[in-house]
């Protein structure tokens, strides 16, 4: 399989598989490797359009960049131009955070700036408000062992340890009306997101530090996945020796089998054990 390669500052090399556009339902599958002489990070993303929408309203990193920054966003269907809101949110965050030093203040600032920019973008096209939720992760050290996880709304991030509990560890807490102890609007649900990007409903984006050891994974997903699979499912399906993209495909397939008709996106990053990183060629392969 042909690979595209790039060189990033600090000695980080990137190899990525071609994009796989698999029709209107399973629309996007891709895998990439980010590597230095001593460190290897595998990344994969799978995004599938559900039966509720004419287009996939989830946005996600396409693994085109050279920075270890990854985003999943979910356009809110009750708002205007959901797919535009999620796509612009992902693009804005990569533009703002994909170069230079990333810290918690930079993440919060980028998210708040994106809130205003997306609101202005949608207002130029319609009077109706639009919005999206998001989860992101960004490495903040050359060893790719220290990360920041940020989120707004009900996209989620999990960590899967190489050893220990087989269940995935939930790193985020949904910004829902129920969790925030707020009253949902008429016709809404307590489990709807109360904080979103693009409608001015966020004032303090959530950011937390996370550490990875060799063999650990970080997983970002939209609610079209996590509402239909639990932490045990995520840990069980994303561990193993199959190509990382194939593991993500299996997780989306399980969500579909359990009734998910929403757009479903999974993005996973795997920090390889140190003994596997040295000298290992960067050759991602996607198995369908």
Key descriptive features of the protein:
single chain; 288 residues; alpha+beta; Phosphatase 2c, domain 1; 5-stranded antiparallel sheet; globular; disordered N terminus; disordered C terminus
Secondary-structure blueprint:
Layout: E1 4-7, E2 13-16, E3 20-22, E4 26-35, E5 40-48, E6 58-60, E7 69-75, H1 82-97, H2 104-123, E8 132-139, E9 146-152, E10 156-160, E11 169-170, E12 206-211, E13 217-221, H3 223-226, H4 231-238, H5 244-257, E14 264-271, H6 274-277
Antiparallel strand pairs: 1-2, 2-4, 3-4, 4-5, 5-14, 6-7, 7-8, 8-9, 9-12, 10-11, 10-13, 13-14
How many separate domains?
Answer: 1
| Number of continuous helical runs | 6
Give the helix proportion (percent range).
10-25%
Q: Quote the distance from N terminus to C terminus.
A: 13 Å
Output mean pLDDT: 86
Reported CATH architecture: 4-Layer Sandwich
Give structural notes.
Strand 10 (156-160) and strand 11 form a beta hairpin. The protein has helices at 82-97, 104-123, 223-226, 231-238, 244-257, 274-277; strands spanning 4-7, 13-16, 20-22, 26-35, 40-48, 58-60, 69-75, 132-139, 146-152, 156-160, 169-170, 206-211, 217-221, 264-271. It is 23% helix and 28% strand. Strands 1, 2, 3, 4, 5, 10, 11, 13 and 14 form a nine-stranded antiparallel sheet that branches.
